[in-house]
Amino acid sequence: MNKQSKAPSEPTLDPDDWAQFRAKAHEVLDMSIDRLENARDHPWQPVPSDLKQRFSREPAPSSGSPLSQTIEEIKTDIFPYATGNTHPAFFGWVHGAGLPDSLIAAMIEAAMNSNCGGRDHIAPYVEQQVITWCREMFGFPKGASGILVSGTSMATMLAMVVARDKASANSPHTDLTAYASMGVHSAISKSLNIVGVGSKQLRRIKVNNDHTMDIEALAAAIVQDISAGTTPFFVVATLGGVNTGASDDLRSIANLCAAHNIWLHIDGAFGVWAKCADAPWRDAAIGMELADSLAFDFHKWPSVNYDCGCLLMRDGDQHRRAFSERPEYLRSASHGLAGGELWFCDYGLELSRGFRALKVWMALKTHGFDGIGQVVSKNCQQALLMATLIEQEDGFELSFKPTLNICCFQAVFSGATRLELDQFNQQIATALQLNGTAVFSTTTIDGRSVLRAAIVNHRCLNQDIEQAVKGLREERQRLLKHQPRPI
Length: 487
What we know:
This protein is 41% helix and 12% strand. It is built from 13 helices and eleven strands. The chain has a seven-stranded mixed β-sheet with strand order 1-7-6-5-4-2-3, with helices on both faces. The chain has a four-stranded antiparallel β-sheet with strand order 8-9-11-10.
């Protein structure tokens, strides 16, 4: 076969010169590895206003540009302006830091270009293996099923569909009621609207002083709804709350749900990985195996690159019944490409699905659950370290002792009103983001606006925690010096 580069006689989207393409691809790979190797040098930086305007105003291209020109534009206009979560002092939100392994997996995934909705090829078997490993790790039975999705939000919605179908066999959708603690993720109310139950059917249960769901209040709400003639169908328990890291008493909630025949769904978006950690942090996962469904993310604590979440379902047959519906052109065959024992389109909404499983499989093969657990334990220890350092600082008040990986605290100054303190803390967070010291977010704890650090970064070292606290101290002092009444 003649491998010399030549222009094709018919239109194609392949490169005219494969050797030139190979050289450019190697250049981009080296650039990408350099960025990960030197992640400490690349904190978040704001996108320049003129660049934002250019992206919003540039007309659609009718003719293409040379690949080298496109790559140069990526280098200057796109690559420098990421979320910043690869940086070791990114604490603002629960964003995984990314793995070099995922870079390799992404290249292979792109070359294979697999559609993982079904058919007989290797990708569905890889996904099934990943799900089996997670099922075994998290204590689900052999009959359990699972599917990889974009994230916990989508996983929760799929679980709600199955729970709704089970419960609505005897009740109209609008007579169903769901339960979750105050401050639960917005995906719950959105999902209720999508599945036809309606967010007004969500009962928000108060929390205890430790930010866990008040089980007595949950029980009372269930009894009240039953007395009113509605059907409680879905309870969301939290394993690692997004605001505080708190985990509900999963075993007690599971017993309550079993007594009333209510579906128990556990939101374990990042907290599920406590199961892999050392004591005492792994105790948060006790009772997780009793859930009817469990949603969690690989792109959070395991740092698998975005996006990849997972849904585990205790009753695999029930799961399949809710979604298995195929037109004639997707009918299975006993042999050939239309074969295969497992079509994931029978377990979710999507027929067109990427090969998400490859990067997860690669991460688990490379690091193992133990390797992930070591990072989880380290990050939880770092949250305690940050809490200790904050308590030693004048002008800061710790909101609570961290139970997992989230540390919340408030910068204070004498004579300030609540509004002044709220805005003061927002000013500190913004300043540290802009100067590249660290990314904190703000949230509300017990009615107060506080600074929040969610530590899930495998690159984070203790020295990063120490430097971040130093930055907090210096920024507080700077604001007070130049603006004694900061507001």
